[in-house]
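Dock adenosine-5'-triphosphate; give full complex structure.
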Amino acid sequence: MENENKKLIRRELFHFVKKKKFLYLLLCFTMIIGILLDLALPWFMMNVTNIAVLEDGDRFSFFIWVGVLILFANFFFHYFDVFLKNKVASFVRNDMRKKLFAHSLLLPLTYHDKNHSGSIVSKLTNDVNAIGDLMGSVFFSIIRGPLVAIVAFIYLLTIHWPLALICGLIGPLTLCVGAVFGKAMKKNSILLQERMAKAVELVQDVLAGIPIIRSYSLEKTMNEKYVNSSDRIYEHDLKNGKISAGLQATSSFIGILSFLLAFGLGSYFVMEESISIGELIAFIQLLNHIVWPFTGLAGLWGQMQSSLAGAERVFETMHEQPWVDKFPSILPMNQTSIKSIEFQNVSFAYQDKLVIKDLNLKIRGQGVVALVGPNGAGKSTLFKLLQNFYDYAGAILINNRNIVTMTPEELLSYFSVVPQESCLFTGTILENINPNDQLSMDDMDRILEFSHAKDLVEALPGGLNFHIGEKGSKLSGGQKQRIAIARALAKAAPILLLDEATSALDNQSERNVNKAITNLMKGKTTFVIAHRLSTITDADLIVVLDDGKVVELGDHDQLLSEKGLYHRLYHAQFKHEDELVIQ
Ligand SMILES: Nc1ncnc2c1ncn2[C@@H]1O[C@H](COP(=O)(O)OP(=O)(O)OP(=O)(O)O)[C@@H](O)[C@H]1O
């Protein structure tokens, strides 16, 4: 299974190679030229030394020009090599980022329920960057090192094969060292990335809740959590440092050992006159290309493995089945009038927890339907099921059509939603009310008037172009809610889903917004989740939910006279309000 997974990831990564094959071919070309230039230097040193020993002035001046040529060619190809690798890496990062973000937007709510949003942030940053490095410099360095070593070894054989064979033993030795350290580095790098992802999740949680942190004096606790998280990162960082130090020290040991060996034996062969001084210099220079690629390979191998682990995390998300295959188109205006909405034996569980239990409910025509019930009864869940955000057992029908037979565009065009928390986006008021730029300024004017947000918008600097800050942080709770109501009005759908929509408003605003909502509700079907039962006494139908089931149904007076759960909830609330007044 794990191997299958690895194969799949390699195939995914290979897609990039196919997509950018011209760039990869160019990089292969610059790599080969780079290798030849690496080997040209020892060849140059050998010749210049031999010429100097022979005092051959004519050939010396020729080799000076060869040296200049090698120098500039090296500069030129080095520049292109690094530039092209960075270009590939940037392309891969950009491509992955865009695909991952788009895919995240299409993932079902079940995915977001199970995974912290910080994990997607971390995949979009750390993991995507690591994949970019892998597909650029790391990939080529891993190929280049052994290639250089093989070519250098062949060259060594041509200079003096017995010495080459003795020194060539260094290659497998460095490979073993690399394998040992590389394995340790891989394990630690994967843990390091996981720790970093956890730290991002924590930072995101904390920054989103700064006001609460302040109110509850949670600074110390949160700081301790972050310190703890950062210390875990530090531990793995330090361990990477230790492994890297061990690797470098051992590499250096083997490197120096090989030089001493080559120098000692080489000098002996020079005395025996089976090798020239120039050849000995070239030999030692070439040894570099055998020792360092293998020792460097260990670090690169570790880096590659941790990048592959990042790729695994990214592709895991990319392979999650999306809710819809492509972005739904901009929702059409839906003028359909609602004749009926029906829940038929609907059951639903979040993971293992059964939340809606064989629920049956039929609503006919337009009007206001209030959903009431204790916390956790399943009211908000019904809103989500109505929009088909989760799979469930049973059937939900709108105008006698099962909602699962509708396209997402068709289904969602039925609803305007005002959530409990207004859920505004960083940007201007205009961008929040009219995100798809569908409305004319006249429409906007009407909507602002209708939602009693006109005065509020006019009082803000820049009016509709006022920047509301992160999630509307520059607006009061009531102001945010009025903008959210205006956004719902702008959609003008036939079913309104109001989740405690007026809970954040002051009395005056609530009156204004209620007037707007009353206007809007005409000819529509409105579901209201209300905890303050005083706000829904006029509802056409009150549905009392308890533990995922409909336990009572009727209007306010009927339900009070039944003296059931609604009666208890209503009187408990009023008793509580009376107590508050008496105090
Ligand atoms: N995303 C989720 N994952 C797992 N369980 C959830 C999720 N959302 C809600 N629940 C659980 O489902 C149950 C019903 O939640 P729901 O939000 O529908 O209740 P509610 O009636 O709207 O409650 P409240 O009045 O407190 O807003 C609760 O027990 C809740 O813990």
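Observed: The longest helix spans residues 219-271.
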